[in-house]
What we know:
The protein is of the alpha+beta class.
Amino acid sequence: MNKKGDKGETMKREETDVLIVGLGPVGAALGVYLGRMGVKAIAIERDHEVYPMPRAAHLDHETMRLLHLAGGAEAVAQASQPLSAYEFRNAAGELLTGFAARGALAPTGWPWTSMFHQPTLEHALRARLAALPSVSVRLGHALKSYRVEGEGVIAEVETPEGMKEISARFLVGCDGGNSTVRRGAGIAFDDMGFDEPWLVIDAVLAGGIARISTVGLQYCDPARPVTSMPMAPGRHRFEFMLLPHEKPEEVVSDAAIAGMIAPYHDPAQFEIERRAVYRFHALIAKAWRKGPVVLAGDAAHQMPPFLGQGLCSGTRDAANLAWKIEAVLRGRAGDALLDSYQAEREPHVRMITDMAVSLGRIVCTQDAGAAQARDAGMLAVPEGERVRGIMILEGLKAGVLPGGGMVAPDAQFRGARLDDAAGYAPILITREESDASRTFAASGGFAVVLSALDSGAEGFTALMNGAPALLVRPDRYVFGAGEAAALLAAWEAYLAGGGVAANIAAA
């Protein structure tokens, strides 16, 4: 039934399976994953154009791999550069701690780190969305309110043609830190106790220079903590912590910015593209799902940028969530499977946020005495021990069989990536073809015999550890190893049981 608007006119109603609110990279990636599975979805975004300035700066190799599945990584790769190191130095320039590159490519086949240009990514994801017939993108559409009815949601959306209702089985809020979806669900944040004001400066390098450094630097100077990061080729970012007496309007002038850059570089090297004051937060939503309403990305969690994991975490949210929604919609899983989303993702996000906050506290020390004590303690460690390889993140602790949870490598298959052949689907790798693997392939999974891989089989062999089969989830985490039939039975039990794989006997 259509609803009467305030002036008595009939409000138009449209129906869909999934309504995505917010078309930043997280919402767009979610839309692509759903569209690749043929799920009917509508993605709405209040703005008509991609925001032209970079915001997120860093993608790790796992996220590049997930964005490849969403059709955005190739464009990003053409507009990105890896870091050779990420260093934390004190006011005297001494190395306190740092991370060094591990090599050119990770086992996923992508660079360990990529400093990238966010608008390039967003344009690529939107182009991929436009090619998916089951997903409709609505720009200039803003969610005003919603209500839960039965198993779904009725959303009121302001459009260029007037108010419209959209009925959806699931509403996913990818609408950022001030999420209308989260506020409408009455979901509060768990505040992890970090709230600091910073001036963010994005600049284009003058004279067509590609880079002034390949090292990301945190200057842990109590007089003013500063971040200096190479971005995509030809771009650079500075972040300056505001001092207690400073007001945002005082620090954004050309003269103020030049004065802050001058101790580190010649300000004439930079053409300022964006200047904005942000508060760096550490917040995690207490609930990521409330019935048919789900949160992803900054709507669910926000972290300080000192590990560059904000967008990475949101992309992992989308990759974890989409195949679960599809399984519920198709009747292959119960609604409880969506409870596994937060159970699997929150520990990972909390761990990363804790680490980012810890690094942030090192950087943000403004008390000279405390900074001196910090320096003495950190410099007491031999320099060779202060630098580690680029961080390898923990895998899943839930949603997998014992011994699973790590990120699966990629391999070459028939002259291309195995990821390309499999798509956004679970992958069964076996030593020999079997009835179980054929049934799995016939039901929408991707099955491949280990010997059929052109290269990269050794990575899977190590994970199989002598087992005859290995099952990889659509989000590319290893579900487990064992006999193929037993693995697939465990996978079905995981779907049917709400994702509680810890209670499933080892395959």
